[in-house]
Amino acid sequence: MQKRRRRELGGNPEEASTLTYFQAQITGCQSMFFFTFIMIQSLCIYCKQQVFLPAVT
């Protein structure tokens, strides 16, 4: 009886844990992609400054 009531209240505990795990994985991938994107962008800006500024002056 207690197990059935718990399952009705909170859903499947295994399912919930896997859902949160996948959400954590997705957010981790997104943050890593965002970080690498910012790094590449800043590198490109740095390289452009190094290449174009001496040519302009």
Order of helices and strands: HH
Topology, number of strands: 0
Rg result: 24 Å
* Shape label: rod-shaped
**Please, how many domains?**
1
Outline the low-pLDDT stretches. Answer: none
Structural class by SSE content: mainly alpha
Distance between the termini: 81 Å
- Helical element count? 2
- Percentage of residues assigned to helices: over 70%
Mean pLDDT value: 73
> What is the strand content?
under 5%
Give a short account of the largest sheet. Answer: none
Topology:
Elements: H1 2-10, H2 13-56
Protein described:
With 57 residues, this protein is mainly α. The protein has one domain (2-56). Helices cover 93% and strands 0% of the residues. The chain has two helices and no strands. It is rod-shaped and about 60 Å long. The mean pLDDT is 73.
What is the compact description of this entry?
This protein is mainly alpha-helical. The chain is about 95% helix and about 0% strand. The chain has one domain.
Task: Throw out a few tags for this protein.
93% helix; 57 residues; rod-shaped
